[in-house]
Amino acid sequence: MQTGGDMWPGRDAHERDSRVVRKYQAAGLHDLDQRIFCGFQTMPANTIMIMTRRLLFAGVGLSLAIAVPATALPAHAAPTPAWRPVYQTPAGDGHGGFDDVFALGPKKAWAVGSHQSGGLIRFAQWNGTAWRPVEVPSSVYSGLRSPALHTVTASSPANVWAFGDARRGGADVGFALRWNGTSWTRKVFAAGMRISDAAFVGKQLWITGSRCTSSGCQGFIRRFDGKAWRAVPLPKVKTKGKRIGFNRLSPRPGGGVWAAGSVHSTSAPVSTPVVAYWNGKKWKTLPKPKVSLRKGLAYGFTDLAAQGSKTVWATATVLSPGEGSTYAGLLLRWNGKKWKHFRIKDKQGIAKFAPDGKKGFWLLNGSHRALLHFNGGKVDRRYAPKAGGKNGRAFGLTRIPGTRSLWAVGVAGERGTVWKYGP
């Protein structure tokens, strides 16, 4: 692990901050307010490095394998169901890793990432038999400097969307790539916009994130109806000097969408976690979960998953807002009337989670080095991602609809890696 200097050699500070912000937002630690929303501009460089080493795979970039045959890994002796690596990008392809994965069913899934040094996009597809790289022509992202994909979602094999960050004209920009099964199109958003999550809500595509300008940062939600992007009004905040922002979305069965984020102060690193749902006309904000923490600690939501029209689960990380240190994880459930929470004894916190197809969940810890299985009110199993004899880190996690299997994606031995749980 690199312990000094810039961990992205050859990139300027703005690009470095963009990557750190994106990964830190993925961990849901929005309690750091504008140091999250505005590229850590108020944070000392040594603090950035400490948090980066905690949250990122140090010295390892994101790579692309678009012109090299896919590498399927040999079958392992471990019986299924069990986590095991099933695909890696070819050796010699450069440092790399996938950032997110989304599955429509047993025969269709997509993983996204990017190349550290070459400024190229990575996009891989599961066809029901094997993972294969899909070529993204450089013309699709021409004019974008150091593009990096970190979010993927789809409504059909002919409507796949990937979102990421890049630099254009000296400014950070969020962008989207759409794959219709045969060709690509792109959308570049306004300067300062960063997308933290995306989900299909019915036939509409929703995104959430933040936009930072010289006057400060604002959260946003947009939805795409197939023709145009339209702004969705955020819940109103009555307290002066505070703003609301969301970092996770989850479609609400029966219509509408759940959103998780925080109400944060514009002048200090203080925030209050919040979950709300949109019923098609207006927002309803849920009461804050009552979690007993020692003085000086807080928690921030990191992921969200709806189960039924009234039930939603969420994960959170317990942290110290003033210093960025993490202490534990939380798994929370709203049953339509009240919250219940479970403490997860992992000092790295929880970054993402996915249902296991039964009554439990797989949790990805904040260091991205461990997958924890939660069932019956406790963690009963733990898996450390590995491949080819190398330790790995997972950044994306999703259940395969209609099954009890899951995909996880990340990096192992400087190679983009896909793991599978179940048959």
List the helices and strands and how they pair.
Elements: H1 13-26, H2 34-37, H3 45-55, E1 71-72, E2 83-88, E3 98-105, E4 108-114, E5 121-126, E6 131-133, E7 145-156, E8 159-168, E9 171-179, E10 184-191, E11 193-201, E12 204-213, E13 216-224, E14 229-231, E15 242-251, E16 257-265, E17 271-278, E18 283-285, E19 298-307, E20 311-319, E21 326-334, E22 339-344, E23 350-355, E24 361-365, E25 371-375, E26 378-383, E27 386-387, E28 390-399, E29 406-412, E30 415-421
Antiparallel strand pairs: 1-2, 2-30, 3-4, 4-5, 5-6, 7-8, 8-9, 9-10, 11-12, 12-13, 13-14, 15-16, 16-17, 17-18, 19-20, 20-21, 21-22, 23-24, 24-25, 25-26, 27-28, 28-29, 29-30
Describe this structure in words.
It is a single chain. It is globular and about 50 Å long. The N terminus is likely disordered. 48% of the residues are buried. It has a six-stranded antiparallel beta sheet with strand order 1-2-30-29-28-27, with no helix packed on it. A four-stranded antiparallel beta sheet has the order 3-4-5-6, with no helix packed on it. The protein is mainly β. The protein is 7% helix and 51% strand.
Fraction in beta strands:
over 45%
- C-alpha Rg (nearest Å): 20 Å
Average pLDDT number: 82
* Helicity level: under 10%
Q: Give the CA-based shape.
A: globular
Main sheet overview: 6 strands, antiparallel
| Helix-and-strand structural type | mainly beta
From the N-terminal CA to the C-terminal CA, the straight-line distance is 34 Å
Features:
423 residues; four-stranded antiparallel β-sheet; 7% helix; mainly beta; disordered N terminus; six-stranded antiparallel β-sheet
